[in-house]
Amino acid sequence: MDASAEEDLEMLRLNHRFAAAETASATRRRRRFRPAASWALLGCSLVLALSGRTSSSLSSQLAWAANSLPQLGLNPRLGAGRSLAKTSLWAGPRELSEVKAGDRFVGWLKHPVITKGNADNLVIEVGPGDNEGTWRMERQRGEAFEGPFKIERGDDGEVDFRDTDTVFKAVLNAAGAGTISGKVVQNGLTWGGSFEAKLEG
Length: 201
Hints:
By secondary structure, the protein is an alpha+beta fold. It folds into 2 domains: about 5-90; about 105-200, Lipocalin, CATH 2.40.128.120. About 30% of the residues lie in helices and about 30% in strands. It has helices spanning about 5-50, 55-70, and strands at about 75-80, 80-85, 105-110, 120-125, 130-140, 145-155, 160, 165-170, 180-185, 195-200.
């Protein structure tokens, strides 16, 4: 091999090393930048979300940010395997697995006899024990009604609130998380009696 060919070969080797070094340097720069860019992206989405957006829009912003993080090299998983978009900070009402002392439900009822199927305000309070409480009907017209009840639990999330004459046959979460709803029975008669109430707090 003559001197000119050896020089050309050496130049090719140098060019190859230079290109490899440039690639490695660029990769290191991108890797250093990714976490900062990721947190900046997350911070911007939080600022936008907290500047007057609804909780639903906030969840969308967080979901968008979480989906973007893997593309920037950051794992969007937090803590014990929970994704950012599924944190409980903006969670909705909890699913009911039982009713217990201290629970207060507010909603409406159509009593088959007292209101003749017209809707009125309803408050159901459990306590002082887990198997007792008080229900109150706040009528738009006429006197309010209040009475004690005992709780009888069935299968598949069914709960009866029962006084001497009236039974609220409730199903947990049937109208959404944190709700009780079902039929209102008066001395065995339904006549369109129904109710729905949501856990407060």
